[in-house]
Design brief:
single chain, 198 residues, alpha+beta, four-stranded mixed sheet, 9 helices, globular
């Protein structure tokens, strides 16, 4: 079996959202599994001295236009939430807690978090709201609250981000195909060609 493609994403990244909507079908077209890796872009920003796109001078205005334009073309309801980007640690940790038990459910959870967050209907830094999303998909609130508070899970989440940066990840979305890196939603056509020629 060919190795999975690795999909690194951050819940506060609009480009990650657009990639998340496409990545499963893309991988399936080439007989690959997509392995989703949620991480915090803040880990990379500390190394690169970067700012979130929507807080960076000049980049901010363009990013808002571009995200809205892409969402419209993809038929996605979209708005940049007030106070964006949220730190989103509860959503990040919840993803990893769910992923440990059921990776397929974790992907569905991630897509729902993206959809709700970029509709202005979810505070990703509010555990009670995040738990409601998980509960709606069948993951018990009590189980999630216990898992998210587990120091071992918190350490695991930090480690995922640190390992990503150690592999050269400095933005999101980020895809590895057989360890070859691709940065950005707009690189998915290149990922497709790479998979077709693998």
């Amino acid at each position: 079996m060919p190795s999975p493609i690795e999909f690194f994403f951050d819940f506060g990244s609009g480009y990650s959202y657009f990639a998340a909507v496409e990545i499963e079908a893309l991988a399936a077209r080439h007989g690959r599994e997509a392995r989703w890796r949620a991480f915090s872009l803040g880990t990379a920003f500390k190394r690169t001295n970067a700012l979130p796109l929507t807080r960076a001078p000049l980049k901010s205005d363009y990013t808002r236009i571009d995200w809205t334009r892409i969402a419209r073309e993809k038929g996605l309801s979209f708005q940049i939430p007030e106070g964006h980007p949220h730190a989103g640690l509860p959503a990040l940790r919840a993803f990893h807690a769910i992923d440990r038990r059921d990776p397929a459910l974790a992907k569905r959870f991630a897509l729902e978090v993206f959809r709700l967050y970029f509709a202005g209907d979810l505070a990703t830094d509010d555990l009670s709201e995040v738990a409601e999303v998980a509960a709606g998909l069948g993951y018990p609130k009590a189980d999630l609250a216990a898992a998210v508070g587990d120091p071992e899970l918190k350490a695991h989440v930090r480690e995922v981000g640190e390992q990503a940066v150690a592999r050269g990840v400095f933005g999101a979305p980020w895809v590895f195909v057989d360890d070859e890196p691709f940065w950005g939603w707009d690189r998915l056509p290149m990922v497709e060609r790479r998979l077709a020629g693998a």
